[in-house]
Amino acid sequence: MIQFVNVSKEFKNGLRALDGVDIKVDNGEFVFIVGVSGAGKSTLVKLILKELEPTTGKLLVNDTDLSQMKRKEIPFYRRGIGVVFQDFRLLPEKTVYENVAFAMEVVEAGRKEIRRQVPAVLGMVGLAAKANSFPGQLSGGEQQRTALARALVNNPSILIADEPTGNLDRVTAGEIMKIINLINHRGTTVIMATHALEIVNSMKKRVITFQKGKIVSDDAKGEYFFED
Predict the structure, then answer these.
(1) Do 163 and 73 belong together in one domain?
(2) Which of 79, 104, 128, 169 could bond to 109 as cystine, CB 3.0-4.6 Å?
(3) Distance of CA 36 to the CA centre of its chain
(4) In a shared domain, residues 64 and 169
């Protein structure tokens, strides 16, 4: 469970990125976070990842108050969260297999576990045949699939997707969303920040809309309309 309790975030320049936010996301939910640029979506994501701290309020993840978490506990906490970004962030000198395996090496997984888990997750995202390819040899969709595999290889309970289809064409974006939806059906909580109106409206999932740091709507299976 993820719960924001009256959370606000104000930066030193006076910008109030979030203003009195209350959200509860249950385990296994799929939630879209939407709004125009600057509405507060990225700040919300960074707070969950504990890259930022709330100015006021409380943020709970799986009943843990993040404000009480010690610095040495943060890496372990982040192991339970998979993250996918718009710009893929793959290591160009490593193959697809090596990029995904690296996420397991960072958490000191054993070689036997890596040899078992990496091919399994590559198969799940449809990249078994591309294991020995380098990022530069892949299409944009294949690179995002690799990023998804890397995010999932440690079996996170939460997947955060920050504009994961932003650099993809319509068809490829649809394929990525099918994978993310499958991941959700397998029990992973998904929080996706996006501008992609068509994707949001087609998925019929919970939609939380932000405007100037405030929640202006929270619809269980609604549509999203906005103007930049």
Answers:
(1) yes
(2) 104
(3) 18
(4) yes
Give dist(CA 37, CA 55) in Å, integer. Answer: 21
Same domain, 163 and 63: yes
Residue type, 183: I
Give the residue from 28, 27, 9, 30 showing the smallest Cα distance to 18. 9
Q: Which residues pair with 5 in a beta bridge?
A: 58
- Taking residue 54's Cβ as centre, other Cβ atoms within 10 Å add up to 20
Domain check: are 57 and 67 in the same one? yes
Rg (CA), the chain: 18
Of 173, 116, 170, residue with least CA distance to 145: 173
- Residue 177 · residue 185 · CB < 8 Å: no
Q: Around Cβ 15, how many Cβ atoms within 10 Å?
A: 11
Does 55 map to a domain? yes
* Mean pLDDT of all residues in 148-172: 92
DSSP SS3 for 165: coil
Tokens (6 digits) for 170: 């319509």
Query: Is residue 10 domain-shared with residue 115, that is, in the same domain?
Result: no
Q: One-letter amino acid identity for 187?
A: G
User: Cα angle at 161 between 208 and 112, to 5 degrees?
Assistant: 145
Give the Cα separation of 17 and 89 in Å (integer). Answer: 25
The per-residue pLDDT of the chain, averaged, comes to: 92
What is the pTM assigned to this prediction? 0.90
Task: Output 222 or 113, whichever has higher pLDDT.
Answer: 113
State the CATH number of the domain containing residue 3: 3.40.50.300
